Q: What sequence folds into this?
C-alpha cells in the first residue's frame, strides 16, 4: 500500500471519528468529561502498587455479578432442591462446574482484595480528611461483601455449609440485647432450616446487590470528585516535584493488565481446585468434625474458642462478641480518633496498631487453619 | 383410692394373722362342718378335699381368715380374728401371693419351685385391669381355680398340659369376651391348634407336645408385639427350639433336632436375628403358629410364595412344576433347602459345581444348555458392571461428578432381583427381557464414566489454551503500555 493511500485512509478514519464525537457532543456535551479524563492522574511513588487493589476488587465484583446471574438460572433456593440443583449445575449444565467454581473462588479473592485495599488505605492514611466518607463507604462495601460470603456459603445446602451457618448464627445470638432477635430474624425461626435458606438466597441475590451498588456508586463518586489520595510526604513538595501518571490511558492499561493476570489466576484455581459440593445437609445428622466458618471469619472463631465459658460474672462468648464488636467499632471510627490528623505528621502509633491487627489476624487464622 | 388401700392393708394383716393357722386335715373345723352341709355351702369343702393345699395341711382359714380350730361358728368366723369370708375379686390374688411369693413359707411346705409367679403375673397382659375394673383380667384363681387346686402335672389340674388348652380357650375362644379387650383379636386359636400336629397329639393324651403354655409361657405372658414375649418374632425360634432342639425328646417323634442351629445360619435367621428385619420369617412364618404343621411337598411353594410371590407365580407356570410333582420333589426346597437356606449367589445358576441345576440336569439336555446360557449372561452383566464401576471410580477420583450414574446402579439392584426371579420361569427369553435393561444401564454408565474422564482432561487443555491467550494479551498490553510510556517520557 502506498503512503498516499495510507494517509488518505487515516484521514477518512479521523473524519469519521470526529463526526461521531460531534454527534455525541451535540447530545451529551462530552467535552468536559474528556477534559476531566485527560487531566486525571495517579500519584507515582513507591506505594502506587496498592492503588490497583480497589480495581481488582471491582473486577472480581463484576465477575461475581456475571457468574451469579448465570447460576441463578439453574439454582433452586429450597431445602428440597438446593443441593440437587447445584449438583445439576456441576454435572449437567455446560460449563456449570466452571461458573460455580469461578463464583466461589472469585468471592473469596474479592474479600481478600478488599482486605488488602482497606489495610493499604489505612497504612497510607488515606482515610484522613477529606476522605472520611470514602473510608466509610469502603467499610460498608467490606461488610456487605462479607455478608454476601456468609449468605452465599449456605446456598449449596451441604453439610459443611449447614453446620457452619449454625455456628455462625449462634455467635450472632450472643450479641447482648438484640442477639436473640437477630438470630431468629436471620434463621427465620429457632433453627437453621429451609426458611433460613430461602431468606439467605433472597438477600444474597436481591438485597445485598442493591446495597452494594449504592455503596459502590458513592465510593467511586467520592474518589472521582476528590481525586486519588497523595502520600503524606507530598504535602510539603512543590507541585512540579510530584510525579504522576495519567489515568487514561496509562493507569487504565496497567489496571487492565493486572485484571488479565487475576483472571488467569482465577481460571487456574477454578479448574485445578474446583469447589467441592460434599454431602447434602441433614439436620438430624451429627455435626461433622472440623466445622469452621469461611477463612475471613476464622480468626474471630479461633479467639472465641480460647475464651472460657465463664469470665468472672460474664458469659465468655458474650464477652468475646463484645470484644470484637468494640474492636471493629474502633477500626471503623479511625478517622475520628486519629489524633494527629491536623499536625500532618506521620502517626506511627496508628501504623503499629495496624501492623498488630494484621499480625493478630494472620496468626489466629493460621492457628485455626492448622487446628482444622 | 384410700378405701382400696385400707382394704388391702386389712387383707394383708388378716392374711399374715391367718397364714400360720395350719391344721391337720382332721382339725380344720371349717372343713369338717362344711363337708357335712348340703348344696352350695358344701361344694367348696367337697372340692377342697383333694386340694393340694388341704393335703398340705392348710386350713380354710389360710385363705379365708378366722379361726378354723374353733368349733363355734360365730367365734371361728369372727372378723376380729381376721375372718374375710369370700375374698373380694379385686384383691383375692393377695391370698395366694402372701404364701407363693414367700420363699420361706413355700420351703416350709417342701415346695422346691420358684416364688416369682406373682412378679411375672404383675407384668403380664393378664394382670391389666379388667373392662369393668373388677381386678385384673385374670388372676391366680382364674386359671388355677379356688378349692380343687391340683399340682400342675396332675391330670386333674386345670393347668395340666392336657387341660390347659381348654382352660385358655375358655376365654380366648369366646369372641364376646375377647372383643371387650380387643375387637380385632382372633378367637380361632384352639380350633387351629386342634388341626396342628401338636394339637392332635395333645388330644390323644401326649402331654409332651406343645400346648398354649409351652409357647406363651405361663405367668409372664406378654402381647405378641412385646419384645419380652416368648412369641415375639425375634424370640419365637428360640421358643420353638426349647423342644425342637431337644434331641432326646425329638427322637421319640423321629424328628431331627438341628433346625434351630441351621435356621440361625440361614438367610432368614440372619435377617431376623442379626439384622432385626421384622419381615423375615421365623418358624411360624412357614409352619404356622397355632396350626403348626410341616408344609407338604405340593404346598411348599405356596408357603414360600406368601413372601416370594413372583417366584411362586413363575415357578407354577414353568416346566419344573409338573416335573417336580411327578418325581415327588418338594418345590422350593429341592433347590434352596429348608431351615438352613442360604443367600442365592450367581454360582447357584448355571452348570458349575455349586449350581442347583446340575442336581437334575446333565450335559447336553435342554435345561443344562439354558442354565449355562443364563449364567453366561449374568457373568457378562457382572463384568460390564465391574468395568463401568472402574471408569466411574476413576472419574470420581479425578473430582468429576458421576453421582447420577452411580445412582443409576440402584436401579440395577432392582433389575438383578427381577432377573434372578425370572430364573424360576426357566425361560431364557423372559430372563433376557429382565436382564437387558441392566446391560443398558451399565453400558450407559461406562460411557458416562469415559466421558467424564475425557472431560477432565479437556478442561485442563481448555484452561491451557485460555491461559496462553490471556498471557498473550498481557504481553501485548505490556508492550503497548511501554510504548505509551516511552512516548510520554520523550515529551
A:
Amino acid at each position: 500500500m502506498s503512503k498516499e493511500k495510507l494517509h488518505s485512509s487515516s484521514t477518512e478514519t479521523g473524519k469519521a471519528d470526529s463526526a461521531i464525537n460531534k454527534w455525541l457532543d451535540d447530545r451529551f456535551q462530552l467535552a468536559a468529561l474528556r477534559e476531566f479524563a485527560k487531566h486525571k492522574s495517579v500519584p507515582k511513588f513507591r506505594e502506587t502498587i496498592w492503588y490497583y487493589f480497589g480495581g481488582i476488587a471491582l473486577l472480581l465484583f463484576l465477575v461475581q455479578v456475571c457468574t451469579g446471574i448465570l447460576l441463578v438460572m439453574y439454582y433452586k433456593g429450597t431445602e428440597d432442591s438446593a443441593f440437587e440443583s447445584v449438583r445439576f449445575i456441576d454435572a449437567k449444565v455446560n460449563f456449570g462446574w466452571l461458573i460455580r467454581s469461578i463464583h466461589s473462588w472469585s468471592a473469596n479473592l474479592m474479600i481478600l482484595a478488599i482486605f488488602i485495599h482497606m489495610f493499604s488505605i489505612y497504612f497510607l492514611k488515606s482515610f484522613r480528611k477529606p476522605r472520611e466518607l470514602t473510608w466509610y463507604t469502603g467499610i460498608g462495601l467490606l461488610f456487605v461483601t462479607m455478608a454476601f460470603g456468609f449468605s452465599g456459603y449456605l446456598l449449596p445446602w451441604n453439610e459443611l455449609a449447614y453446620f457452619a451457618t449454625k455456628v455462625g448464627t449462634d455467635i450472632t445470638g450472643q450479641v447482648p440485647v438484640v442477639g436473640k432477635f437477630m438470630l431468629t430474624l436471620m434463621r427465620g425461626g429457632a433453627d437453621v432450616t429451609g426458611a433460613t435458606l430461602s431468606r439467605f438466597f433472597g438477600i444474597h441475590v436481591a438485597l445485598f446487590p442493591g446495597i452494594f451498588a449504592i455503596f459502590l456508586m458513592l465510593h467511586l463518586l467520592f474518589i472521582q470528585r476528590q481525586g486519588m489520595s497523595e502520600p503524606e510526604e507530598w504535602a510539603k513538595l512543590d507541585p512540579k516535584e510530584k510525579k504522576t501518571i495519567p489515568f487514561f490511558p496509562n493507569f487504565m492499561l496497567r489496571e487492565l493488565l493486572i485484571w488479565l493476570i487475576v483472571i488467569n489466576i482465577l481460571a487456574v484455581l477454578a479448574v485445578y481446585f474446583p469447589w467441592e459440593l460434599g454431602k447434602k445437609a441433614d439436620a438430624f445428622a451429627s455435626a461433622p468434625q472440623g466445622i469452621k466458618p469461611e477463612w475471613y471469619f476464622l480468626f474471630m472463631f479461633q479467639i472465641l474458642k480460647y475464651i472460657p465459658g465463664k469470665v468472672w460474672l460474664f458469659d465468655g462468648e458474650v464477652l468475646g462478641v463484645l470484644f470484637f464488636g468494640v474492636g471493629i467499632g474502633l477500626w471503623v471510627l479511625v478517622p475520628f480518633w486519629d489524633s494527629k490528623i491536623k499536625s500532618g505528621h506521620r502517626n506511627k502509633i496508628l501504623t503499629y496498631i495496624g501492623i498488630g491487627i494484621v499480625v493478630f489476624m494472620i496468626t489466629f487464622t493460621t492457628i485455626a487453619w492448622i487446628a482444622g | 383410692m384410700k378405701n382400696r388401700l385400707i382394704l388391702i392393708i386389712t387383707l394383708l394383716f388378716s392374711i399374715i394373722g391367718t397364714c400360720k393357722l395350719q391344721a391337720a386335715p382332721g382339725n380344720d373345723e371349717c372343713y369338717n362342718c362344711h363337708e357335712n352341709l348340703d348344696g352350695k355351702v358344701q361344694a367348696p369343702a367337697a372340692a377342697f378335699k383333694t386340694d393340694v393345699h388341704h393335703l398340705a395341711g392348710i386350713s380354710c382359714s389360710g385363705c379365708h381368715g378366722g379361726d378354723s380350730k374353733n368349733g363355734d361358728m360365730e367365734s371361728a368366723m369372727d372378723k376380729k380374728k381376721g375372718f374375710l369370708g369370700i375374698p373380694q375379686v379385686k384383691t383375692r390374688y393377695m391370698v395366694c401371693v402372701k404364701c407363693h411369693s414367700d420363699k420361706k413359707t413355700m420351703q416350709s411346705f417342701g415346695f422346691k419351685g420358684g416364688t416369682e409367679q406373682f412378679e411375672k403375673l404383675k407384668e403380664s397382659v393378664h394382670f391389666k385391669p379388667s373392662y369393668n375394673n373388677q381386678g385384673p383380667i385374670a388372676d391366680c384363681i382364674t386359671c388355677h381355680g379356688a378349692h380343687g387346686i391340683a399340682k400342675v402335672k396332675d391330670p386333674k389340674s386345670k393347668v395340666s398340659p392336657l387341660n390347659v388348652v381348654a382352660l385358655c380357650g375358655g376365654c380366648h375362644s369366646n369372641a364376646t369376651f375377647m372383643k371387650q379387650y380387643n375387637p380385632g383379636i382372633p378367637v380361632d386359636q384352639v380350633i387351629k391348634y386342634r388341626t396342628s400336629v401338636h394339637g392332635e397329639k395333645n388330644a390323644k393324651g401326649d402331654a409332651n407336645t406343645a400346648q398354649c403354655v409351652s409357647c406363651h409361657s405361663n405367668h409372664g405372658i406378654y402381647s405378641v408385639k412385646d419384645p419380652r414375649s416368648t412369641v415375639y418374632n425375634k424370640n419365637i425360634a428360640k421358643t420353638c427350639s426349647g423342644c425342637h432342639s431337644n434331641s432326646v425328646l425329638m427322637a421319640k417323634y423321629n424328628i431331627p433336632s438341628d433346625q434351630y442351629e441351621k435356621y440361625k445360619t440361614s438367610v432368614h435367621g440372619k435377617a431376623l436375628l442379626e439384622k432385626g428385619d421384622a419381615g423375615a420369617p421365623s418358624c411360624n412364618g412357614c409352619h404356622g403358629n397355632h396350626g403348626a404343621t410341616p408344609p407338604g411337598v405340593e404346598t411348599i411353594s405356596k408357603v414360600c410364595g406368601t413372601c416370594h410371590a413372583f417366584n411362586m407365580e413363575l415357578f407354577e407356570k414353568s416346566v419344573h412344576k409338573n416335573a417336580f410333582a411327578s418325581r415327588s420333589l418338594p418345590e422350593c426346597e429341592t433347590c434352596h433347602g429348608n431351615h438352613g437356606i442360604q443367600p442365592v449367589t450367581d454360582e447357584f445358576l448355571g452348570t458349575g459345581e455349586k449350581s442347583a441345576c446340575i442336581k437334575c440336569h446333565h450335559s447336553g439336555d435342554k435345561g443344562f444348555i439354558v442354565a449355562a446360557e443364563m449364567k453366561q449372561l449374568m457373568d457378562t452383566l457382572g463384568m460390564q458392571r465391574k468395568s463401568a464401576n472402574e471408569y466411574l471410580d476413576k472419574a470420581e477420583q479425578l473430582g468429576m461428578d458421576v453421582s447420577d450414574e452411580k445412582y443409576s446402579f440402584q436401579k440395577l439392584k432392582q433389575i438383578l432381583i427381577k432377573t434372578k426371579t425370572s430364573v424360576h420361569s426357566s425361560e431364557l427369553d423372559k430372563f433376557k427381557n429382565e436382564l437387558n435393561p441392566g446391560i443398558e444401564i451399565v453400558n450407559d454408565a461406562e460411557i458416562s464414566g469415559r466421558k467424564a474422564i475425557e472431560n477432565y482432561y479437556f478442561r485442563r487443555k481448555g484452561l491451557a489454551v485460555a491461559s496462553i491467550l490471556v498471557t498473550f494479551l498481557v504481553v501485548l498490553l505490556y508492550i503497548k503500555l511501554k510504548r505509551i510510556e516511552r512516548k510520554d517520557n520523550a515529551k
User: Anything to note?
Assistant: The longest strand of chain A covers residues 41-43. Chain A has a mean pLDDT of 88. The longest helix of chain A spans residues 194-226.
